[in-house]
Amino acid sequence: MIWNCTLQVFQACSELTRRAGKTSTVNLRKSSGLTTKFSRLTLGVLLALSGSASGASLEVDNDQITNIDTDVAYDAYLVGWYGTGVLNILAGGNASLTTITTSVIGANEDSEGTVNVLGGTWRLYDSGNNARPLNVGQSGTGTLNIKQKGHVDGGLFKIRFFDRRRRDGQC
User: Where would I find the ESPR domain in this sequence (predicted)?
Assistant: First the structure.
């Protein structure tokens, strides 16, 4: 059971939310949105909510693949936080930020994150129009691919190469 803040009711979660460690695909279409006022919710919980997509961090993990082809705004994008995650920002997709939080691709040791900007736009500015950091390969493996006329708009990119033999995080 979860609390749906849009409808102001408790709802039973789908079986998809109990599939930890399994592969899931979620397509966000223009006709469907997600609303939550919670922070750091996993995508599995977000599946059970309705409304517009904004207000929480989008965490793509546990072998999840998430496709965005509409306008969405999150506090942060956390792709490959503890496991493996793939975020695809497709043509027609406009992903933006709502707060001053750092977004991360490949956050922790042994995690792997990939963001593919395939014809869409990823805008890494907060609501005050300040450039926000994007850490690629913070302590895990991070990959950012920009293809098919995709566009990433931001000014604070941190690409880190973590040497597992030395374990010091130096380039």
Answer: 2-42
d(CA 55, CA 158): 24
CB 84 within 8 A of CB 63: yes
Handedness of CA 121, 124, 127, 130 (dihedral sign): negative
Distance CA 89, CA 91 (A): 7
Phi, psi (deg, nearest 5) at residue 16: -60, -30
pLDDT of residue 163: 54
What pLDDT is recorded for position 45? Answer: 35
Q: How far apart are the first and last CA of the chain?
A: 45
Under the banding of pLDDT at 50, 70 and 90, the label for residue 55 is low
Look up the pTM and report it. Answer: 0.64
Average pLDDT over residues 15-44: 41
| Closest to 59 in 3D by CA, of 37, 36, 35, 80 | 80
Q: Where are the domains of the chain?
A: 2-159
